[in-house]
Every structure is written in C-alpha cells, then in structure tokens.
Amino acid sequence: MYSEEDIRRLTWQSRRGMLELDVLFIPFMEEAFRDLQKEDQDRFVKLLACEDQDLFLWLMEREVPSDPDLNRMVRIILDRVQPN
C-alpha cells in the first residue's frame, strides 16, 4: 500500500506541465488513486514513468499502448472522465 508521503510524491509527479495531461492526472491522483487496487496503483506508477509525448498520444486516443498494463491504466483513466 502506498503511504500518504508516496501519494504526495506521485501527485507531484503527475504535474507534467502539459495541460492535457495535468487535467487528467491531477484529479485522478486526488480523487481515484487511493481507491484503486494495489496492482492498478502499481500500473499508474508505471504509467507515470512514460514519456509525456507517449502519454499524450495514448490519453488523447491517437495510439494504444502496446503494454497491456499501460493500456489498462489508460482505459481506467479515460473511463473515469468519459463514462458510458
């Protein structure tokens, strides 16, 4: 489980400086991260390690990550902001 200090650090890392990413990541960290299963929290941390350009393409649905873990996390984030 992630400590509050870990969550503060991850929230800081979520600030990418690209508006399109910031409006997805920061609210996700503040409102949804704590409720994720540990495996999905780990996937989010893995996603944060990716390059901004890749993140942008995935989260704007212009490309799909080849890594199934990253693809799952992208879908979780997008489903949160684009409910059916």
UniProtKB/TrEMBL annotation:
It comes from Neptunomonas concharum. InterPro entries: SDH, SDH_sf, SdhE_FAD_assembly_factor. Coiled coil: none annotated. One of its GO terms (cellular component) is cytoplasm. One of its GO terms (biological process) is succinate metabolic process. PANTHER family: FAD ASSEMBLY FACTOR SDHE. Belongs to the SdhE FAD assembly factor family. The keyword Chaperone applies. It is found in: Cytoplasm. Keywords: Chaperone, Cytoplasm. Its main location: cytoplasm. This is FAD assembly factor SdhE.
